[in-house]
């Protein structure tokens, strides 16, 4: 069974992560999920936990005993990591080497495994030169991106920045782990 790490960040598109988790689970993949604090404001960990039948991690410093170093063991056990939706914040953190929460710390500990980043944000934020430079930097390190689509955004703007369709993200994951 393939092990997938699903990172969910604080975007209105976080609700689509439930469909991603559900489809991966139905494809006989074990889905381990990390949600940023802001992601939990858009969708609850219980929703994802119910769909994946696995614990959802939200706090790097939760006082629960683990016989291992959780952020390292998660990084080692998964076959692929997908961050969907990925905000400009998480993209900037990873590009800058900042590991200050459970998701960014685990991503920084992943070696020789695909990390797929699926941006979702306002068009101006996505097209901002800082965001674009961070994306180019991460691509040069081997991180993979699933381009956002052009759509009506939550703010009312029409432009590029909406999370890619779930089936496109699932296909990218399957390609990354050699299942297509």
TrEMBL record:
One Pfam short name: Flavoprotein
Is Membrane a UniProt keyword of this protein?
no
SUPFAM superfamilies reported in the protein's UniProt record: Homo-oligomeric flavin-containing Cys decarboxylases, HFCD
Q: What GO MF annotations does this protein's record show?
A: FMN binding; ligase activity; phosphopantothenoylcysteine decarboxylase activity
GO CC annotation? phosphopantothenoylcysteine decarboxylase complex
Q: Which InterPro entries match?
A: Flavin_trans-like, Flavoprotein
GO annotation, biological process: coenzyme A biosynthetic process
Ranges of residues in domain Flavoprotein: 3-161
**Does the keyword section mention Ligase?**
yes
PANTHER family to which the protein is assigned, alphabetical:
HOMO-OLIGOMERIC FLAVIN CONTAINING CYS DECARBOXYLASE FAMILY (PTHR14359), PHOSPHOPANTOTHENOYLCYSTEINE DECARBOXYLASE (PTHR14359:SF6)
**Per its record, how is this protein called by name?**
Phosphopantothenoylcysteine decarboxylase / phosphopantothenate--cysteine ligase
């Amino acid at each position: 069974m393939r092990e997938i790490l699903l990172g969910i960040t604080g975007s209105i598109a976080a609700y689509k992560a439930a469909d991603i988790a559900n489809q991966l689970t139905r494809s006989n993949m074990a889905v381990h999920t990390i949600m940023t604090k802001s992601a939990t404001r858009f969708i609850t960990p219980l929703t994802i936990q119910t769909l994946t039948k696995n614990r959802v991690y939200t706090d790097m410093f939760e006082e629960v005993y683990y016989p291992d170093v959780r952020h390292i063991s998660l990084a080692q056990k998964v076959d692929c990591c997908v961050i969907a939706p990925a905000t400009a914040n998480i993209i900037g953190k990873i590009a800058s080497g900042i590991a200050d929460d459970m998701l960014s710390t685990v991503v920084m500990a992943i070696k020789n495994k695909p990390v797929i980043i699926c941006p979702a944000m306002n068009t101006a934020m996505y097209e901002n030169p800082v965001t674009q430079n961070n994306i180019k930097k991460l691509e040069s390190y081997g991180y993979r991106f699933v381009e956002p689509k052009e759509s009506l955004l939550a703010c009312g703007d029409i432009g590029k920045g909406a999370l890619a369709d779930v089936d496109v993200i699932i296909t990218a994951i399957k390609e990354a782990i050699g299942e297509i």
